[in-house]
Design brief:
The protein is built from 20 helices and 6 strands. The chain has about 450 residues and is an alpha/beta fold.
Length: about 450
Amino acid sequence: MTATAFCLHALGSSSEEFALLHDRLDGTLDLVGIDLPGFGTSPAAVGTTVEEMAQQVERAIGASGVTEWLLVGHSMGGKVAAVVADRTISGANGLFGLRGVVLMAASPLSPEPMGDDRRQAMLGWAAHGPISTSHATEFVDANTAATLDTERMRAALHDVERTDPEAWTAWLERGSREDWSDAAPNPTPALVLAGAEDGDLGEDAQRRHTLPHWPHGHLEVVPGAAHLLPWEQPDDVADRIRRFWERRVDRGPLVPEDTVRVIASPRVSARMRGALAARALPDDPDAEPRVLDRTQLDTLRAVADHLVPQAGDRPIDLALRVDAQLAAGVGDGWRPDGLPADADAFRAALDELHGAAKAGPDRLAEVLDAIADGTYESTGALRGDQLRAWAEDAAVDLARHWIAHPATMAEIDFDGYANGGDGVRKQGFQLLGAGEREAWEAAAPAETAGTATEAGR
């Protein structure tokens, strides 16, 4: 099934700006454009703040019923896309299934860099009604590296001219200046595109203002383009999005549709939904290990293949996730007695196992079996009993990352993440906790409190 990419357009544009990309990405992604309030066919009355635009996008995604999707945001739409992605990965907006984000000449989460003179001139264009053809032409020409061909120019001008003056003014006066930069860094894979000849939102601005928010993001510069990338270089942009999807995003196990719908339902709390959303993100095949070196990481991957074999051709990179766990200094709270610190123990054990892993899976299995039964004679920094303790602990870490993935939970029919949502619950342990039931009953209507009392007996 083809994944869906929800596309959010730039100021003075509409979903029509993605028509050329839609044709070029057919068969790879299903592009669905959303007209933001006051643009295209969407009325400004829906709401023109960043919050209101994000809510409209979230409603559209939720109503679509898709369970595997991307966000594509251009300029103004980039800021909105980042807000929606942040609220999705935190679990706050009730959506699930986000796989990646593409940001083209994106307006950053911080206030957008724009000269006051140009801002005032653009505000003047809509001060007395719809934007004129001459001003629309000035706007498009200022945002392209070369004059668009006749058909593309006609479409771009039409979008500017039909923009609601209220929405145009609201973005310039307020939306572009809104500051959402206090949001936590987003772990979603992100492709950040900048036009080589863009001014305010070119490569430097994307590197300084956008990329830091995306620790798993990658910046690429599109030659022969300024700000209107989908109109200027659709072939190049489509190729970059396709590579991003195929190389970086379309990997790892997919969460079944039924499970996605449960996770996105009110039965699951926002905090739990956010944790599952982060676990479901695809692993980066080009990621550098943070604690282990490359050889040690590859050895741990071989160990993971033996200890936690995964069916199918879309495995979780358990070794990379353990490396991230070591870098963060977190785990299951247990450390076997007599072992050095976790990171040092992993490095030493993997150095010991490198030769066996290099010899092949059969030899590695023999060595791991010998370590488990206490017959292995160590030649490295860890004694045999230490290697045995490490192997047991490593197996727990690897298995824990496997079973914590929502696709695995679906495979083993585990639904314990459906913890009743964020509201007061009449079932489960919340109402039976010390002081909780009594406090809730005091504030509840008499008939509801009575029901809870009966249930608690």
